[in-house]
TrEMBL record:
<dbReference type="Pfam" id="PF17667">
    <property type="entry name" value="Pkinase_fungal"/>
</dbReference>
<feature type="compositionally biased region" description="Basic and acidic residues">
    <location>
        <begin position="54"/>
        <end position="65"/>
    </location>
</feature>
<dbReference type="InterPro" id="IPR040976">
    <property type="entry name" value="Pkinase_fungal"/>
</dbReference>
<protein>
    <recommendedName>
        <fullName>Fungal-type protein kinase domain-containing protein</fullName>
    </recommendedName>
</protein>
<feature type="region of interest" description="Disordered">
    <location>
        <begin position="1"/>
        <end position="65"/>
    </location>
</feature>
<dbReference type="InterPro" id="IPR011009">
    <property type="entry name" value="Kinase-like_dom_sf"/>
</dbReference>
<feature type="domain" description="Fungal-type protein kinase">
    <location>
        <begin position="61"/>
        <end position="100"/>
    </location>
</feature>
Amino acid sequence: MAALDARSSERHSVYRTDPVVDGSPPFKRSRQYLEKENEPPSNDFGAESGEAISEDKGDLESEAHKAQRTGTIPYMASGVLLGEAPSVQHDLESFFYVLYLLPFSYDSPLPGRKVNEWPDTIEAWCNGDLFQCGSTKKANVLNEKWMFQQLKDNTSDEWRRDHKLFYRLLGLIVRLYSPMRRALLASEQVKQEAIDALLSGKAASTDASNGLLTHEDLIEPLEAWLDLPPDQQEMPPAMRRVYSVELETAGSRKRAFTDMLRAAKDD
């Protein structure tokens, strides 16, 4: 995320000298943008994670747990974990998890960052059999407020030290999360309608297109975010309040303390 601090004089001060805007496909660009330098694009962020953790904990960590952290389970689409045949939509959902899990996986967005322990709420995506992992993940992912409060409450302080950088990260995540969540909800609706049709003796619809996530659903908001000036990349204040992810400033702490004193005086 050091690239977020870069500035360029071209087009709204977007980072035209950064590899993220080198003309490569949008998904590759976004990974270069968010992953640390020279780390190959991969869903397997954990190759480094597993080594660092095993050095610290030695034999205390089981091979199964290391496989969960260093393998693909945390990044797999919930539908695949629940037994659905893999599809392009699932690949797109997995891409979102690569982005979403980044601030949980590292202690800082700056160069020299270290691998971080995941909070229990995120670690739950790796616990149990695949069905349990998928069920937990789907329930969490469909809960908008839960998803964003995790970013505020369960990431390292360094991710929130620069408020504007944090709000820009939220702005990117919400632009990709919204179409993904909408597709998951639509897919669930299609399944429910098929069940209702079967129970009523009617033919189930064969059109599942309403529940599909497409490349355009993620590419277009990603490209739009990349082309915005930094202040417009941020999650809007009204949305931050809805999701309860507004960060406290020195001024807001002072006001809260003043309000408390006034309330005590009134009593």
